[in-house]
Write a structure and sequence with these properties.
Pfam families: Sugar_tr. There is one protein chain. The protein is mainly α and 444 residues long. 85% of the residues lie in helices and 0% in strands. It has 22 helices and no strands. Helix 14 crosses helix 20 (391-402).
Amino acid sequence: MTQRITGRRAKRGPESQVHRVAGASFVGTTIEWYDFFIYATAAQLVFGQHFFTALSPAAASLASVTTIGVTFVVRPLGGILMGHFGDRLGRRTMLVLALLLMGVATVGVGLLPTYDRIGLAAPVLLVVFRLMQGLSAGGEWGGAALMAVEHAPVHRRGLFGAFPQLGAPTGLVLANGAFFAFTAILSADQFASWGWRLPFLFSAVLIIVGLFIRLRVDESPEFARLKERAQRSRRPITEVLRHYPRTLAIAIGVFVANIGIGYVFLAFILVHATTRLGVGQNTMLLLIVLGALFWIATTLWAAWRSDAVGRRPVYLAGSIWLVAWAFPFFLLLDTASVPLMLAAVLMLAVGLGLTYGPQAALYAELFPARIRYSGASFAYAVGAILGGGITPLAAAVLTESTGTTMSVSAYMVLLGLVTLIAVLKIPETAEQVRERRRSCARIP
């Protein structure tokens, strides 16, 4: 009897660890994206009047929105640094460091004195904190994705790899929910004066919870085996660039449309709808939250489906969807009719989910374990620059210069075509799909 009980516990142990790692990956990336989105929202709503008051209102607004993209400048550096030590020292250590760095930067923004108090130091420190967030973001996703995938059984890598992916839409829900709540509770003057700081300070609570969860997970078994066999790469990013340039290009390309079009959804339509279409701020925040919830559902479905049919077919469907929906999206959004705007947002979320769900598993399968953290993190960071770095600013400039959002739709199509070409180059074979199915069949 004792032997049977011990055996059952042994079987439950690895499964329990897989779920714990998935939860830790989800919580960590959710906090990262929550911190990112509250910054992006505050930059659009209040930063201009607090940190760039020496400029004209229009210039102050442009300057504050531009700081959103500052993070992309250092993301590759964060990916290289954390990828290097993630491949040398372990995934878990870097994930804890990334979470701490993001937390310090976000709480720092919440405590930062304004331009009226400390002058030019205010916008300078704001950019410094933003750069710290960029360093964290450069290494956070790669580690979280690899921890989830490398702990998972082969036939469920897609599904468990979806948990860090859920951090983006969930972080968006939390961030917009926080702003929705505080703008509803506080008067407009209270929120503009000091209430905007509360979502940033609340991040401290999330960081403590995230650290508690992450410190309780084991190191990746694949990294543990590399360490035990002395097979770790001495210069992982050099090895990636020298021996896997084609793989790196594919990994960068498949992310371009998702991150670029995602930033249209995340960072552009709020300002566009409230300032140009006359839609209420809370109404638009609610629509974005509903779209994010749908994004979560489609991400999970796409990840699960990729375990059955492969990463490439799911990615291909999502890429085609994003290209096809680019023009209908703004045609419906610009009606300023809430039901039609909701339809536009929900259908865009389908394409985002299809191209986001399989990503973690795909990146893990593209690169060997010894250089996986560096390859995945660097590709993710560069893809974010090419696709999302200038998208909010480009969308605003295109709309202003052409007088129509159809120019933004054309830009979305261009991003979609870049990803579509990369997807067609994914080296997934029928044998890989069959191996996943054989692994699934062997599980009782």
